[in-house]
Amino acid sequence: MGENAVLLAHTMASHDLKDPDSAKFRDAFFITSDNRGESRDKSKDSWCIEINGKNSYGAYVGYTWALLPAGGNSVIMGNSSTGAVINQLCASAVYPPTR
Q1: All residues at 6 or more sequence positions from 90 whose CB lies less than 8 Å from its CB, including other chains
Q2: Separation CA 99–CA 86 (nearest Å)
């Protein structure tokens, strides 16, 4: 993922936090639901980003996943109503199950 793409993803993911400037990031990578490699439908790509932000008391709340659908301007946070799906999707892409 290019440096500009990562910066854009960080900006989008931290936009709705209480203190966007204090956001901390870990992993940032592309995932896709189209497994055809370079000939894939890029509209099925998304970005997964781990983000840690501050709460109203100024304390960090812990890392959670954020999903940014490619070509969109929305962010789905792992602590939202769809959080379990986002967390499973992004976490399994980084840490595949081992036997």
Answers
A1: 31, 48, 50, 65, 67, 78
A2: 23
| Dist CA 46 CA 32 (whole Å) | 6
DSSP, residue by residue, 9-69: HHHHHHTTSSSGGG-EEEEEEEEES--SGGGS-GGGEEEEEEEE-B-TTS-B---EEEEEE
Q: Which residue shows structure tokens 């960080």?
A: 10
Rounded Cα distance between 26 and 95, Å, is 14
- 0.90 exceeded by the pTM? no
Q: Which DSSP symbol is given to 95?
A: S
| Residues 48, 96, 42, 85, Cα dihedral to 10° | -60
Is the pLDDT score of 82 beyond 60? yes
